[in-house]
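Good day; I would like, with your permission, to put a structural problem before you. What I wish to show you is a protein chain and, alongside it, a tokenised description of its three-dimensional fold. I would ask you to consider whether the tokens describe a fold that such a sequence might reasonably adopt. You will find the record immediately after this paragraph:
***
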Amino acid sequence: MSEGIERRARFDLIRYANCWEDADILCEALRPEKGRRLLSIASSGDNTLALLAGGAEVVAADLSVAQLACVELRCAVFQHLTYAETLAILGVWASDERNVLYNRIRGDLSPAARSFWDDRKSVIESGVIHNGKFEDYFRLFRTRVLPLIHSQKLVRSLMEERNQSEREEFYARHWGNWRWRLCFRIFFSRAVMGRFGRDPEFFRYVEGSVSEKILGRAKYGLTVLPVHLNPYLEYIFTGEFCHALPRYLREENFEAVRAGLNRLTLHHGTVEDAAAKYGDGGWDGFNLSDIFEYVDDEIFRDIYGKLLASANPGARLVYWNMLVPRSCPACFAMRVEGLNELSRRLFMEDKAVFYSAFVVEEVKG
């Protein structure tokens, strides 16, 4: 019998303290203008808040109470703190006042979220963006594996501003040596990533080498894309957002996020249930993260069909493929158009280099 991921993986821990998907290409694909209704996977809240900043009404759904607590905390922080205090409490800037700042905003949390964070004062104190399972995985890579490959001096040099030809030369001469390739293949293998990073069940439908696919994308991110403007790579290699910030944390978006908080609704449960529960008026777009990777073909078709049934003409379904190729099921092909040129262009700009495809599909009128 087919089982949804909610029956096969744990959702009681902070799996992602940050959203490891590029909100810049997401927002270009979903066009979150005023008047548009969007349904979003909540994750840690980063990309949901980025969509709010664009002006859209957003419902954010997640199976994990821990992830929803991350979203609630961010909302309270943006509502009540200054921009500098926001960067401090979340962990972007150094601070010894995080618990003081938390006490100022905890009253704005739901009882469930307040209890969650009251029990995790050490997480608040050390900065919430540093305390997810995936972040622990990158910390292990950064502190235990990367020193076996490159010096701290070379890592710092990696983040310097260069043009593409200079990045390619740096990678060829200094970075992409045999130690890098060997350690990368081991650490980003299915077994190690499943044990320390993602849940092993997230790889159930993956075929072929996990590490080889990610290694190729990592090289692309380190050579073709500007490394010094990439917050995701900067965090992986340094443990900080210093030179670049995710979209929701950029100062120019702060007030727009704050102004959009009253347009956000959170839903604990599946995205298809949220689509039905809040679907009056239909949906203009869906941020689906990479959820289709975690289910078999039958469940994928079922979820896709339910979302499609609630979509307005012109609505876009946007999602990533990491290791399992997914696109509109053949049974719905007459109702959906794949925006292949847009998908390819945005994928070439994707700063979160773990993924093998970015899919943008549009419901026909």
Observations:
- The first strand starts at residue 37 and ends at 41.
- The beta strands are 37-41, 57-62, 264-268, 283-287, 311-321, 336-338, 357-363.
- Residues 136-238 form one domain.
- Residues 65-80 form the longest helix (16 residues).
